[in-house]
Amino acid sequence: MTEKKQIHLAAHFPGVNSTTVWTDPRSRSQIDFSSFEQLARTAERGKFDFFFLAEGLRLREHKGLIHDLDVVGRPESITVLNALAAVTERLGLAATVNATFNEPYELARRLATLDHLSGGRAAWNVVTSSDAFTGENFRRGGYLDRADRYTRAAEFVDTARELWDSWTPDGAPRPVSHDGRHFSVRGEFTVPRSPQGHPVVIQAGDSDEGREFAAASADVIFTRHGTLEAGRVFYADVKARLAAYGREPSDLKIMPGVTFVLGDTAADAQERAAEIRRQQVSPQNAILALEQIWGRDLSAYDPDGPLPDIDPDPESELVQGRVKIADPFAIAAKWRALAEAKGLSIRQTVIETTTRQSFVGTPQAVADELDEFVQTGAADGFILVPHLTPGGLDEFVDQVVPLLQERGAFRTEYTGTTLRSHLGLAEPVWKG
Amino acid sequence: MSATRPLHLSAEIGGPAHYDAAHYVSLARLAERGTLDFVTLSDTFARPGPDALAVLSRVAPATERIGLVPTVTTTHTEPFHVSAAVATLDWVSRGRAGWAVDVSTTEAEALLFGRRPAAPGDELWHEAREVADVAAKLWDSWEDDAEIRDTSTGRFIDRDKLHYVDFEGRTFSVRGPSIVPRPPQGHPVTVIDATSGAARAAAVRHADVALVRADDPTTARAVREEIRDRARAHGRDPDRLRVLAVLPVELHTTADAVGLAGLIGEWYEEGAADGLHLLPTDVERDLGFVVDGTVPLLQHRGLLRRFYPGATLREHLGLARPVNQYALAGEGS
Ligand SMILES: Cc1cc2nc3c(=O)[nH]c(=O)nc-3n(C[C@H](O)[C@H](O)[C@H](O)COP(=O)(O)O)c2cc1C
């Protein structure tokens, strides 16, 4: 009998968006180290593969003002992960770091250092978002279109790997000489090859360019395709791209970001899920969500009243620091149809359309579903996004993990020490 | 100077490159056992070694009181990232962070980045001054009480307490605000080795701790006076600036440790500096003699405290938590 396919699990620190519920009395600091420590320790108690930190390099704005309705503010990822390396032993430590607003030499060095100091647990989520808005905080400034962003990211990763490979096995630096379209790097790296050889590379981007980059270069994809159907389509698409790069399907792990709500009964879980959705969409957040689609000031509208009759403004610059809405007219039409059919208010419509809880049910039902995703080719694992800081993962670790372990789909102990070993990834070839 | 003036003692823990955390943790704990104010860990892109700020972040949860001061270079790095990383070191150490500002002058370092040619020290220290300035602005770009969690209005923050910094330097500009809330110390401690003229010009403007080099206490005292005068000329209160004399040490025996205590006592009595920053030759050996030999003698003579009365590096140094420049501006208008 072949061994059952294993699920990989990661814990996403609650982010600066409306998924994170800060109004709950159990919600604690988003910035104190104790919150990071507690969540990381919980993930390690649950034998998770890794702990994940997102990044945003400019505070989001709405109508020209700093967005104030969601959690705002977070520490710098790599620095926090180095500190977490001191209070965890096996847990992988993944930092989201932008490839547009960094330089390969410095970032490769910071990641190699994290890998050394953590004994081989470092990962880098390569993001490419770039806009002139974010660029205002950086030397390079400006904006890169999607094609340039990804050629830069790909060359960035290649250059980092040249640096990570540059020391000889007996510990002597060899000079690197990289001359490319985006970067010129000449000289010696200050850090010997780290325990993982190369820190794990994660990719989070959904465009064709993004998928191709992942197929060529990444070890893990962090995706938004978290339903069974969309997951299977995405999974098949990405895995099929690997052969062209001489890679096996198992060389790239697909991990959708997902939320979960547990309850003693199915009804109980549904009730808790509805309450969380109400917490996530305050009356103020409902109007804001509407303004993000419509691109107009809708502050005069009653969140408990009907949707506006006016059409979206597709040229709007109202929202900054978020991914642009592709077709606001289509979304507006869909929202109107839904509101009309079900007799929903603005807030109810926003709750229905923007909040999506991936897995809602008893621990048994959720464990069944997660396993089904993995056994039927919709995912290799999950990046769990709790809605509460820092206790939002406790129930999952206490109630769902043991069920996954019972059915032989998830480790009961760490078998290796590095993140690569947790993910079942091969050691990278040391290119001399 | 009054006899009750505290003596500040700190030490560098760098040396031949190590890449394992345990090495640095044990050195920092040793220094902490000696109740030193802080340890520095030097860093450069020009020689082998790990990223110093990362190392001291790794050390932070494994220590409780010791101040942690990595060298952070400003020439090939992003001011926005530098400010966020130092602020984060302050968060993970619960108020024990500093940064020793430095520049990268060599052609070799410039080639590692391929972004700008090598430049003279004067020019780069001018830029470093701008980086120190914008870092402080970014730390202040969140007022301490910006997070309000007001359920009645649905607001997590009071955005009137977040500020754009709109900094325009010669070589970079930063819009702000920071992505990191104001760190526990308000401003992590800025340390500058004020030996060169250009670095000293930065120190008199931005340093909380200026390091100076002198062969004897008389020269050191003159440099200290110069730095204090110049700081005053920049509108600063010189008592909010600590001048530490850098003292290279090489200790082979207990007798050497006793001799060092005598020397430190002399420098202290001459009013040469606010304290000494020790530069070990062999860090494991020398720091051991300092902590087990020199420190107890200084404590016995009443020159050095026996425990940490405070929790933050600013408290160890007797430096007040800075007032937020934007909060002040707000009150005036
Ligand atoms: C699940 C997911 C998580 C992401 N997290 C971040 C993040 O933390 N920080 C960031 O700057 N961009 C983040 N991104 C943005 C992507 O990295 C990418 O830049 C963006 O999706 C645009 O690329 P695309 O056109 O290929 O989708 C994320 C994207 C996805 C799908």
UniProtKB/TrEMBL annotation, chain A:
Residues 28-378 form the Luciferase-like domain. InterPro entries: Diverse_substr_monoxygenases, Luciferase-like_dom, Luciferase-like_sf, NTA_MOA. It holds the Pfam family Bac_luciferase. One of its GO terms (molecular function) is oxidoreductase activity, acting on paired donors, with incorporation or reduction of molecular oxygen. It comes from the Bacteria. Keywords: Flavoprotein, FMN, Monooxygenase, Oxidoreductase. FMN binds at residues 96, 150, 207. Its EC number is 1.14.-.-. NCBIfam families: FMN_nitrolo (TIGR03860). Belongs to the NtaA/SnaA/DszA monooxygenase family. This is NtaA/DmoA family FMN-dependent monooxygenase.
TrEMBL record, chain B:
FMN binds at residues 43, 71, 196. SUPFAM superfamilies: Bacterial luciferase-like (SSF51679). GO terms for molecular function: monooxygenase activity; oxidoreductase activity, acting on paired donors, with incorporation or reduction of molecular oxygen. InterPro entries: Diverse_substr_monoxygenases, Luciferase-like_dom, Luciferase-like_sf, NTA_MOA. The keyword Secreted does not apply. Pfam families: Bac_luciferase. Gene3D superfamilies: Luciferase-like domain. Coiled coil: none annotated. Residues 19-257 form the Luciferase-like domain. Keywords: Flavoprotein, FMN, Monooxygenase, Oxidoreductase. Signal peptide: none annotated. Belongs to the NtaA/SnaA/DszA monooxygenase family. PANTHER family: ALKANESULFONATE MONOOXYGENASE-RELATED, C2H2 FINGER DOMAIN TRANSCRIPTION FACTOR (EUROFUNG)-RELATED. This is LLM class flavin-dependent oxidoreductase. It comes from Streptomyces beijiangensis. The lineage of its organism: Bacteria, Bacillati, Actinomycetota, Actinomycetes, Kitasatosporales.
